[in-house]
Amino acid sequence: MNRPLLPFASMVLCAAVTLAACSPQSGTPEPTAEQQKAQADAATAARNLETYRQVLKLNNDEMVVTMGKDIVQRFPQSEAAKEVMQTLPAIEKRYKENSEKNRLASMWTYQVAPMAGGTQSTASIFSKRDDGEPVRLVLRRHTSWGQSAFLYGSKPGFVSPWQLHHHRQGRRQAGADQGVHPRRRRAGADDPR
């Protein structure tokens, strides 16, 4: 009688051992929500750090700065943030300097052309006055004529602030020479009031 029960008993014993191995152990507590978030953040920071390292190898300062700032902002206490902060400040400084240099260079237009008696090189830039009128500054160098600078407005009769200042100074001086206060002098009036 014992013989038929032996295979059955061994199967039950194996099933019990298997179930015990698969069931959660009462000695190991499940991680809390905070611990799960910390583990997820650490994994995300590690992935982002790896991407940062790859972009760093490509010498793409704009992407490096963007990704580095993101890592430092989102994971400030992580090892990834500590590693990023070793390289980010210098790269960010270089990126800002190069961006400003490129911005300024793109504002200018350069031309070189043969001109009567030699070669002319020009550089020009547009600006807007307070009244919204566009003004163009042209710097010119000619092999025979030398260097020149011009201001061009969109309307005839453009007067630069420098010319206006000196014109006003000249009027004041002329009035002072004649014993007349410049504000009291009227066009065509000889008598001071």
How does this model look, in words?
The protein is an alpha+beta fold and 193 residues long. The protein has helices at 2-22, 33-57, 61-74, 79-107, 161-177, and strands at residues 109-115, 118-128, 134-142, 146-153. Helix 2 packs antiparallel against helix 3 (61-74), helix 2 (33-57) packs across helix 4 (79-107) and helix 3 packs antiparallel against helix 4. The chain is elongated, with a radius of gyration of 40 Å. 7% of the residues are buried.
Helix content: 40-55%
Structural class: alpha+beta
Strand composition percent: 15-25%
- Structural Rg: 40 Å
Strand ordering within the main sheet: 1-2-3-4
H-E string? HHHHEEEEH
Explain briefly what this protein structure is.
The chain is of the alpha+beta class. Helices cover 55% and strands 18% of the residues.
Which features does this protein show?
single chain; 193 residues; alpha+beta; 4-stranded antiparallel β-sheet; 5 helices; 4 strands; 55% helix; elongated; disordered C terminus
